[in-house]
TrEMBL record:
Keywords: Signal. SUPFAM superfamilies: Bet v1-like. This is SRPBCC domain-containing protein. Transmembrane segments: none annotated. InterPro entries: Polyketide_cyclase/dehydratase (IPR019587), START-like_dom_sf (IPR023393). It comes from Sphingobium rhizovicinum. It holds the Pfam family Polyketide_cyc2. Residues 1-20 form the signal peptide. It comes from the Bacteria. The lineage of its organism: Bacteria, Pseudomonadati, Pseudomonadota, Alphaproteobacteria, Sphingomonadales.
Length: 177
């Protein structure tokens, strides 16, 4: 699973958001930022953030189906995924913990996503939603610190690419009728 997960992260390719970049990298971590304007109401965007099954790419899940992902959008709530049973008891994974939630404005998580879970790191993923133009601008930042066996400089662009793909999925879902 670890090698498959890294390859899936490395192979991610979709339309990039309006702005995406690794904003900092050192031997102890990295930061990424992506932003996009979405032609939707901030309340709709926030509601979608709490239902990742509607916009998260299935290829970047442990179960292979983003419908198995849920977000309990309150401080202490879980961004979790159920892993269906394959002849035994079903499994589960905690991707992150909600640490800040203000409907229509901001949703922030603490967690090491994807292959970062097997590393000695902590991460903070933040979605800021602000009214802009005919909808809203969503700015997503992810700051990761700790020990990465692969090296932060090598991992940062892969993570940035995958998270940018998720933001593009959020935009597509929010702008769909």
């Amino acid at each position: 699973m670890r090698i498959f997960g890294l390859l899936a992260w490395a192979g991610a390719a979709m339309a990039a958001p309006a702005h995406a970049a690794v904003t900092g990298s050192s031997t102890v971590g990295f930061a990424t930022e992506s932003s996009v304007e979405i032609a939707a109401d901030p309340a709709r965007i926030y509601a979608l953030l709490t239902t990742p099954g509607d916009w998260w790419n299935d290829a970047h899940t442990y179960s292979g189906d983003s419908a198995n992902m849920t977000v309990d959008a309150r401080a202490g709530g879980c961004f979790c995924e159920t892993i269906p049973s394959k002849g035994g008891a079903p499994g589960s994974i905690e991707h992150a913990r909600v640490i800040y939630a203000v409907p229509g404005q901001r949703l922030r998580f603490s967690g090491a996503f994807g292959p970062l879970q097997t590393e000695g790191v902590a991460g903070t993923l933040d979605f800021a939603i602000a009214s802009a133009g005919k909808g809203a601008r969503v700015t997503m930042t992810y700051v990761v610190g700790g020990y990465l066996r692969m090296g932060a400089d090598k991992m940062a662009p892969l993570v940035d690419q995958v998270l940018g793909e998720q933001l593009a999925g959020l935009k597509k879902a929010a702008e769909s009728p």
